[in-house]
């Protein structure tokens, strides 16, 4: 496989075949993210992509899922992306799911009909980083989109029949806007109504603008129990018709896995027990990105 730099993928894609069809992220301006800073965004050539597909056809017959990397492979021009999906179906007929990261920019660039075409050719899951539903915080972290835009693009993906997994970041608004961030994020999640929500805790990365703000005292990172309170408020304000809400990432202090709406009350009770000290939180040395 032709991999360039570190390859980032969602935890649920740990056993997937990773095809790096783009390098880096086309936006690459978020103040908290250091994942793609060393990479200039580019789309890989057909020759390299086909070589990787041929390799997978010979050596990756046990995997049943494919994940298209890097940061927002959905931004690949429609004709080229359709060709890749068709080749995956042709050369790897045992694959049952194809997923990719998508941001509001790449979703906006695709028409609804184009998204439906991609779904018809096997793209069944997109992962979108919402981070927060608070417009003040979205602007501050340089996400490049408003909460209204996030809602529109999330609904667009769902309307195309593509399953949606949304990532949110606890702590991203700092201490002062923690409650607002939690409430507004719950509002946006409820409006989009995704199949999956993944709540992670912010871990500051040296060299990023947000880390520099933290070092200078301009950004105040919430502590463990403040993050837990934020999770509780966010969770309480999130209504999904039939979705999974995970907060079991390695960055989190308390692992949560709930199906909404049926597990809502039990999960809030669990968080309350942790807040009252009846359940121990994950020690700092065990947390990771």
CATH architecture descriptor text: Alpha-Beta Barrel
**N-to-C SSE series?**
EEEHEHEHHEHHEHEHHEEH
Radius of gyration: 19 Å
CATH-assigned homologous superfamily: Aldolase class I
Mean pLDDT score: 96
Strand order of the largest sheet: 1-4-5-6-7-8-9-10
| Dominant shape | globular
Q: Roughly what percent helix?
A: 25-40%
Can you summarize the main beta sheet?
8 strands, mixed
Number of strands: 10
Please name the CATH topology.
TIM Barrel
Strand content: 15-25%
Distance between the termini: 24 Å
Low-confidence blocks of residues: none
Structural class label: alpha/beta
- Text of the CATH class: Alpha Beta
The overall number of domains is 1
**How many helical stretches?**
10
Describe this structure in words.
The protein is of the alpha/beta class. The chain has a single domain, classed as TIM Barrel (Alpha-Beta Barrel). Helices cover 38% and strands 17% of the residues. The chain has ten helices and ten strands. The chain has helices spanning 46-59, 78-91, 104-109, 112-120, 135-140, 147-159, 178-192, 209-216, 224-236, 264-275; strands at residues 17-20, 22-23, 42-43, 65-69, 97-101, 123-131, 163-170, 196-201, 243-246, 257-260. The strands form two sheets. It has an eight-stranded mixed β-sheet. The longest helix has 15 residues, at 178-192. It starts with 16 loop residues before the first strand and ends in a 14-residue tail after the last helix. The model has no long low-confidence stretch (mean pLDDT 96).
What's the structural blueprint in terms of helices and strands?
Blueprint: E1 17-20, E2 22-23, E3 42-43, H1 46-59, E4 65-69, H2 78-91, E5 97-101, H3 104-109, H4 112-120, E6 123-131, H5 135-140, H6 147-159, E7 163-170, H7 178-192, E8 196-201, H8 209-216, H9 224-236, E9 243-246, E10 257-260, H10 264-275
Parallel strand pairs: 1-4, 4-5, 5-6, 6-7, 7-8, 8-9
Antiparallel strand pairs: 2-3, 9-10
């Amino acid at each position: 496989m032709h991999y360039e730099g570190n390859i980032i993928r969602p935890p649920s894609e740990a056993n997937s075949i990773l095809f790096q069809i783009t390098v880096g992220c086309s936006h690459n301006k978020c103040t908290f993210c250091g994942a793609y800073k060393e990479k200039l965004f580019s789309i890989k050539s057909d020759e390299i992509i086909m070589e990787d597909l041929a390799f997978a056809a010979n050596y990756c017959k046990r995997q049943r899922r494919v994940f298209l990397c890097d940061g927002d492979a959905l931004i690949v021009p429609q004709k080229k992306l359709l060709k890749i999906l068709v080749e995956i179906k042709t050369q790897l007929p045992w694959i049952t799911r194809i997923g990719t990261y998508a941001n509001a920019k790449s979703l906006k660039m695709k028409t609804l009909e184009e998204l439906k075409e991609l779904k018809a050719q096997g793209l069944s899951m997109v992962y979108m980083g919402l981070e927060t539903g608070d417009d003040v915080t979205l602007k501050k972290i340089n996400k490049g989109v408003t909460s209204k835009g996030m809602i529109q693009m999330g609904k667009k993906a769902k309307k195309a029949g593509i399953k949606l997994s949304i990532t949110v970041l606890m702590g991203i608004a700092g201490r002062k806007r923690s409650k607002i961030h939690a409430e507004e994020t719950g509002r946006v999640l409820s409006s989009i109504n995704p199949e999956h929500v993944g709540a992670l805790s912010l871990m500051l990365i040296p060299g990023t603008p947000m880390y520099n703000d933290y070092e200078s005292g301009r950004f105040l990172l919430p502590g463990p129990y403040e993050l837990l309170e934020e999770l509780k408020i966010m969770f309480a304000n999130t209504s999904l018709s039939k979705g999974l809400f995970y907060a079991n990432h390695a960055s989190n202090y308390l692992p949560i896995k709930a199906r909404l709406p049926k597990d809502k009350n039990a999960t809030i009770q669990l968080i309350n027990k942790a807040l009252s000290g009846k359940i121990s939180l994950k020690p700092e040395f065990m947390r990771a990105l």
